[in-house]
């Protein structure tokens, strides 16, 4: 994996900061879609896992497409939220190509942006889960 | 070559798959089921040099089925035949009939020293080296391309509620 220059890292992180609110909204959307049913929340963890370990940005897009294309019940929530995620990943692709012209840097930037996005989204998702569990505990 | 595979697979392949599959699905629907697609992916991963033969075999199978079926079911098989023709074209289609294929991509990526046809006594070894290079390219790029292709096809299948 190529090492990005401090300037590129800073530019990418600044963009992630600017987008934080929207990324948190995606986390809320994931919560509304998957709730915290044990089986379904595994799906969100799987997404995070893929984003963190991917060597190609398209592996993340493929994961979402594969989940949406399954013929099981697990595909339903993905079909609700998948297009929005794919659209956002396209935006991250475009942002990476605006930040640098070299294909190697662009690949590294895409992955950095995706990891920043998923970190913010999954944090918000887990926060929603915790809030919901607390509400339920108080209600009982 | 390793990093270049990642770059091509992350850009060119993503674009080519969408450019090819979206109009195909619009015209033919999704004529191939998940199990056939899984077969295609397995072949591309394990025996990338056999993908074209596999597509040809599947095409012939669909042609035989089409002959022995009712007129109403024939249309489905016609779409399936088109699908396998598309796969063969994606592997080895040539200009001007086929705008882009993996073979064309490999040719375009050939190192300069392998591009020029030598005529002397070294011609045979140069040809061998070119063949080896293309086989290595195929082993690395076919799995990546068909991973993108199958994911996008499944996505289309899911969108159509199939």
Give an overview in words.
- Chain A is an all-alpha fold and 140 residues long.
- Chain A has helices spanning 6-18, 20-34, 38-53, 57-69, 75-99, 103-139.
- Helix content of chain A is 85%, strand content 0%.
- Chain B is elongated, with a radius of gyration of 18 Å.
- Chain B starts with a helix and ends with a helix.
- In chain B, 30% of the residues are buried.
- The model of chain B has no long low-confidence stretch (mean pLDDT 92).
- At the A-B interface, helix 4, helix 5 and helix 6 of A face helix 1 and helix 8 of B.
Keywords:
heterodimer, A: 140 residues, mainly alpha, B: 162 residues
Average per-residue pLDDT of chain A, rounded, comes to 93
Described by strand count, sense and barrel closure, the largest sheet of chain A is: none
Point out poorly predicted stretches of chain A.
none
Low-confidence blocks of residues of chain B:
none
Class from secondary-structure proportions of chain A: mainly alpha
- Provide the β-strand percentage band of chain A: under 5%
Structural class computed from helices and strand pairing of chain B: mainly alpha
Oligomer: heterodimer
Distance N to C terminus of chain A = 50 Å
**Biggest interface: chains and residue counts?**
A-B, 22 and 22 residues
Helix content of chain B: over 70%
Task: Work out the helix count of chain A.
Answer: 6
CA-based gyration radius of chain B: 18 Å
Principal-axis shape of chain B equals: elongated
Q: Mind telling me the C-alpha Rg of chain A?
A: 16 Å
Q: Estimate the strand proportion of chain B.
A: under 5%
Task: Tell how many strands the DSSP assignment of chain B holds.
Answer: 0
Mean pLDDT of chain B: 92
Distance between the termini of chain B: 38 Å
| Helix and strand run of chain B | HHHHHHHH
What is the element layout, followed by pairings?
The complex is a heterodimer of chains A (140) and B (162).
Chain A: H1 6-18, H2 20-34, H3 38-53, H4 57-69, H5 75-99, H6 103-139
Helix pairs in contact in A: 1-6, 2-5, 2-6, 3-6, 4-5, 5-6
Chain B: H1 2-10, H2 12-28, H3 34-46, H4 51-67, H5 71-92, H6 102-109, H7 112-115, H8 123-159
């Amino acid at each position: 994996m190529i090492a990005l220059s401090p300037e590129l890292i800073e530019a990418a992180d600044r963009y992630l900061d600017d987008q934080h609110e929207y990324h948190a909204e995606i986390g809320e959307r994931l919560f509304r879609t998957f709730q915290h049913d044990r089986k379904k929340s595994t799906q969100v963890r799987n997404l995070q896992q893929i984003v963190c370990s991917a060597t190609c940005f398209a592996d993340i897009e493929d994961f979402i497409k594969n989940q949406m294309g399954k013929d099981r019940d697990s595909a339903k929530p993905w079909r609700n939220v998948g297009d929005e995620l794919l659209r956002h990943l396209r935006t991250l692709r475009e942002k990476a190509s605006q930040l640098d012209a070299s294909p190697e840097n662009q690949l590294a930037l895409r992955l950095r942006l995706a990891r920043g996005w998923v970190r913010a989204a999954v944090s918000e998702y887990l926060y929603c889960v915790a809030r919901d569990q607390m509400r339920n505990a108080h209600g009982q | 070559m390793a990093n270049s595979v990642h770059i091509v697979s992350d850009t060119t392949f993503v674009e080519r798959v969408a450019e090819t599959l979206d109009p195909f699905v619009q015209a033919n629907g999704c004529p191939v089921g998940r199990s056939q697609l899984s077969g295609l992916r397995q072949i591309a991963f394990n025996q990338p040099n056999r993908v074209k033969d596999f597509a040809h075999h599947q095409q012939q199978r669909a042609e035989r089925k089409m002959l022995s079926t009712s007129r109403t079911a024939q249309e489905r098989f016609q779409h399936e035949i088109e699908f396998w023709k598309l796969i063969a074209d994606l592997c080895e289609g040539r200009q001007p009939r086929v705008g882009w294929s993996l073979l064309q991509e490999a040719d375009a990526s050939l190192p300069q020293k392998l591009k020029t046809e030598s005529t002397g006594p070294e011609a045979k070894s140069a040809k061998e080296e070119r063949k080896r290079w293309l086989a290595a390219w195929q082993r690395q790029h076919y799995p990546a391309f068909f991973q993108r292709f199958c994911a996008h096809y499944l996505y289309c299948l899911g969108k159509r509620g199939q």
